[in-house]
Amino acid sequence: MNGCFGTGYKNGDPCWEAKIPLEGCPNLIDGATYLGVGFDGRGVYSAESRKKSVIQRSCKNLQTYGKNEVPDSMTVQGIYDTDVESYTFSSMEDYRKYLAEKSAVTSASAMFQEDINKASGHVAGGGAFGLVWSAGVGGSSQSGTSSQSSSFSASSSASAQLSEKQTQTFMAMLEINIFRYEIFMDDVTPEQLNVGFLRDFISLPESYFSPGAEIIFQNFYLRWGTHYIKSAKFGGQLKIIKTKQATQDLSMSEFATKAEADWKMTLSTFSAQASQTKSSSWWHEHETKTESKQSSGQAASNSQSQANRQEEKQASAQEYSHEELVVQGGDQKIAAAITEMYTTALTTELKDWLESINDYPKPFSFVLRLVSDLLNIPFASLFPAGDVDYGCFGRRDLQTEVGTGRKYYTQKTVKPDVGNKGPKNGSEPVTVTEIRYCNFENRKALEDSMTKRRLALQRAVTVYLEEGRLLSSDFHLPAGEAGCETAMLAFLQEDNTGVPTWEDMTGGKEFTVVFDMPYDIPGILLAQDVLTLKFNRHKWFSTRKGSVPHLYDGYKNGGSNDVQAKKVSVQGLVMTYDEGTGVFTVTDDDFTASATLLTDIPQWLKGRDVARAEYKQLLNHLSQKSDTVGDIPCSIQWTNAHRFDPTDGGKCIHFTAASEGDIFVVFASIPQNHETWIYVQITPEGVALYKALRLQTTQLNDNAGGLGSATLYQSYFVCVTEDVDDTTSVIQYGKTPDNEERPHVWLSFTFNEVASLRYYSFGSGESPVKVMGLSLLDKPAKDFIICREGTEIINGVCQQKCHSECNAGATSF
Which among 170, 448, 544, 786 could disulfide-bond with 255, CB atoms 3.0 to 4.6 Å apart, if both were Cys? Predict the structure, then answer.
């Protein structure tokens, strides 16, 4: 350290003289490179989850183990132990706790998640550090089809309990561990830390909550790991894992008993004899028939026993949903054991593997520590030279660079004269003055900054172990349930702005019916369903999105063909419409009329409100009145990675997306408080802007909205600018055409307040949304943008044009 934070110093430079050379290790002991290496805490409990090395290895003290050198920071102890252990776990979470205890780390909800996935059968594969074989035997699946008798027997809580039982997994594990030696890492001194690791650490933000800091921290621990390997045991391991989905008919004790019997059957093959050898010669012909019969009988018995074991194996294999064989260390010829797992030939393969472990030892048992623990050191030890008169900390005359505020000093150094190529002065060196920047003004500033960064790194690792990797640029949002976008509108609306009139519904226009029921109607409707309804030729025709209408889809039962009765029929289900609320009700008469066509109609429908009506192009109708409750995003997830500060000239979110339905871009001051939300709704009809769930303005130009396709992508952007001095917040929406870089603004709106928006996220509607290429950029220059229809340039900024009859720019034209 010594205050020299640059690179490329030459001999003669004060910072060159500050370097302390380390003694190399030309004949390093096998396995020392595993110690002091970063480790991904969410990975697999094996060497395949290693990251970059966080330490430097020096052999100045000339330690040896056998014929190999041992680094100064490590200690080797020979151990020659062998153990065979079997375990049963009532859940995969118990297995996670076992791994956490074995590695001496604090268990987190996603610690060793890849190992959990592999053991439960979600992943199967091999790595460079061991042999992995897995097989799924059997399986189960469940579909959500509707099937119900005429009597009511549905129960959502029962289905939830069934789902919970099906997701519980029992696990049995057998380990054969061959230990040869163990390597411990002693306390690491500052000079033993990897210089690149230190440089990256010093470059981290001081706070995890700084805008964009999550991605910087993620890049750090994905490169260096969340933990590092403190000690490891070397040798070989053979591990067999079997899992089974728990059911009501299988208890944990029964599973453990069956697993124990299965392990005994497996271990019995290790000592079984493949054949019986008997010496004979020409003078042994007097051997009696009894002996021959006994011999053949014993051979037959052995064959029968072997057949029985095979039958038991097949019966046992059917009991498991997943089996996995993992071998670490030794000769990889043990792969032949995959096909001989339940045969006596496994004895030979196992013996050869045991003999090869001395030649090919691998680490398979680790003790881990947090990477941040390496940085919890006395900061005075970072400067072994004490007080110096060079570098950033040896100067008292640090200057401040205008514009950036960075501290720097100048250093005179000698370089060869490359400009003068004359014979006399060509080789004479010249003295030049270099500017060298300082990250810290003094040692105290460095110590305080290191402490803040270490605590921020601990927080980042904790979040990663709980939440997983931040997929901030490309992600997929699932679809919400049917009718989720307008559910809040139906609940909070103060008038019937979005409710279709009966005249509109019977006038030949299409409208939407949103069903919201506690249970499915078997063979007809789902509990949450959306259909398009149209009255045509005195019949009600209903279709789902993407389906083709047919003549047989028209119904007129129960008097629904009489427009005066205000009744509709959806697939034969008769309902009465309330024009004041937009709600459909199945009255007693409707139920009786429906039962003539639907023989299995459930009794719970009688007298129940089951659906609501909406305009098919709801946004057109909502735009006719300002400050009304509108659509809300259905599936939205907030993350620390999506934080920003729009007060410094504004920020723009650029992304490419595709969806059959709506795409929401949501900004918030407090994500859990809807009253602080400002969001943009991108639909095939156009674009709408909401504040606190209420509609503020719309842009209904067809070219302004989305494509309404799950496979066709468009590039969008939303800019937010908060001016603290003028107390305004400006939201701008637009697109970036494929053939040019200039942004096209389609919607712009100004709020006369500072909204204090600090988080952004994306939401979906009733269709999934795919987002890719997300980036957060500064707001483009005013002369670089293009104002499209509905906006105009005022004072160099695109602003919304409002119709003369509209209020405060509620609708663009």
Answer: 170
**What are the backbone angles phi and psi of residue 91, rounded to the nearest 5°?**
-160, 165
Report if residue 25 sits inside a domain.
Answer: no
Return the SS3 of 250: coil
Residues 452-506 pLDDT 10s: 999 999 988 988 888 777 766 778 888 888 878 777 665 655 556 668 889 888 9
Percentage of residues of the chain with pLDDT beyond 70? 74
pTM listed for this prediction = 0.58
Shared-domain flag, residues 640 and 754: yes
According to DSSP, the residues that pair with 193 across neighbouring strands are 55
User: 597 and 525 in one domain?
Assistant: yes
Confidence of residue 541 (pLDDT cuts 50, 70, 90): very high
Biggest alpha carbon–alpha carbon distance for the chain: 123
The sign of the torsion formed by the CA atoms of 603, 606, 611, 613 equals positive
Residue type, 179: F
- Regarding whether 607 and 652 lie in a shared domain, the answer is no
Query: Residue 419's pLDDT band (boundaries 50, 70, 90)?
Result: low
Q: Decide if 443 is inside a domain.
A: no
pLDDT for residue 181 is more than 60: yes
Least confident segment among 361-370, 415-424, 774-783? 415-424
Least Cα distance to 748 among 689, 686, 665 occurs for 689
Are residue 597 and residue 702 in the same domain, yes or no? no
Q: What tokens does 229 get?
A: 């390997």
Domain match, 636 and 671 both = yes
Look at residue 281 and give its three-state secondary structure: coil
The gap from C-alpha 45 to its chain's centroid, in whole angstroms, comes to 19
Range from 246-250, 290-294, 515-519 carrying the lowest mean pLDDT: 290-294
CATH of the domain at 766: 2.60.120.200
Q: Give residue 437's pLDDT band: very low, low, confident or very high (50, 70, 90).
A: confident
Do 769 and 632 fall into the same domain?
yes
Give 102's contacts (C-beta < 8 A, 6+ positions apart).
Answer: 45, 365
| Separation between Cα atoms, residue 373 and residue 452, nearest integer Å | 13
Last residue of a domain, one of 577, 601, 620: 620
The per-residue DSSP string of 345-363 comes to THHHHHHHHHHHTTTS-EE
Domain with 594, as residue range(s), is: 498-620
Same domain, 616 and 718: no
Q: DSSP class of residue 552?
A: G
Asked if the structure places residue 437 within a domain, the reply is no
Contact predicate 38/47, CB 8 Å: no
Count of CA atoms in the C-beta half-sphere (13 A) of 220: 28
| 8 Å CB contact between 70 and 61 | no
Residue that terminates a domain, selected from 596, 620, 644: 620
* Claim to verify: residue 680 and residue 598 sit in the same structural domain: no
Q: Is residue 709 part of a domain?
A: yes
Structure tokens, 340: 């001989």
